[in-house]
C-alpha cells in the first residue's frame, strides 16, 4: 500500500512539473511575434535575380535579411549593397553601391541609404545620400542633394529623377554646373600657391 501511494504521489508530481513546463513554453511563445521574425538570413550574398525568366540583376552584400511574413514584406541589406543591372544581352547598363538598402517586395521599390554611388553605361558618376528606385515605373528619384560627374561637366542640385538606365535625367533645383576643364585649371593654379602654415587652404568655389 505504501509503495502504491508513493507511486501515485510521484506520478502526480511528475504531471504537475510537466504541466508547468508546458505552460512556460506557451507563455514564451505568446511573447514572440513570429511574423516579425526574419524568414531568411544569409551572409556574404552573391546572387543573380531573374524577372520573367530573364536575368536582370546581380546582387552582392555582406548580409541579406528577408521578412516575408510581416504586413509589408521587405528585404533588408543593413551592411551595404552592390547591385548591377543587365540588358537582354547580359551587358551591365547601370550599377549602384550604398551603405544600406531596403526592398519593398509588393511595391517593387528600392530605398538606398548612405553614400549612394551610381554609374551608368556612359561611366557618369552619381552621388547622393538617399535614393528610390521604382521598378514598376522604371524610374529613379531622390529629394536629396545630388552630385553628377560627367566627362565634360559636374552638375549639382537638390532633387533628381531619371529613367532606370540613368541615361535621361532631370535636376529639380540645380545649384551649379562646373566645366571640368575649368575646375582642373583652377585647382592646379591654387595648388601651386604656398599656404601659410597656420591657415587652412582656401576652398575653390568655381562660378557655374
Task: List its traits.
50% strand; 208 residues; six-stranded antiparallel barrel; alpha+beta
If you had to describe this structure to a student in words, what would you say it looks like?
With 208 residues, the protein is an alpha+beta fold. It contains two helices and eleven strands, in the order H-E-E-E-E-E-E-E-E-E-E-E-H. The protein has helices spanning 2-30, 180-191, and strands at 40-51, 54-67, 74-77, 81-86, 92-98, 100-104, 109-120, 125-134, 139-149, 153-163, 169-179. A six-stranded antiparallel barrel has the order 2-3-6-7-5-4.
What is the strand and helix layout of this fold?
Blueprint (H helix, E strand, L loop, with lengths): L1 H29 L9 E12 L2 E14 L6 E4 L3 E6 L5 E7 L1 E5 L4 E12 L4 E10 L4 E11 L3 E11 L5 E11 H12 L17
Antiparallel strand pairs: 1-2, 2-3, 2-4, 3-6, 4-5, 5-7, 6-7, 7-8, 8-9, 9-10, 10-11
SSE string, helix = H, strand = E? Answer: HEEEEEEEEEEEH
User: Quick one: how many beta strands?
Assistant: 11
The backbone outline, from C-alpha atoms, is globular
Helix content: 10-25%
Number of helices: 2
Please state the average pLDDT score.
79
Proportion of residues in extended strands: over 45%
- Low-confidence spans: 189-208
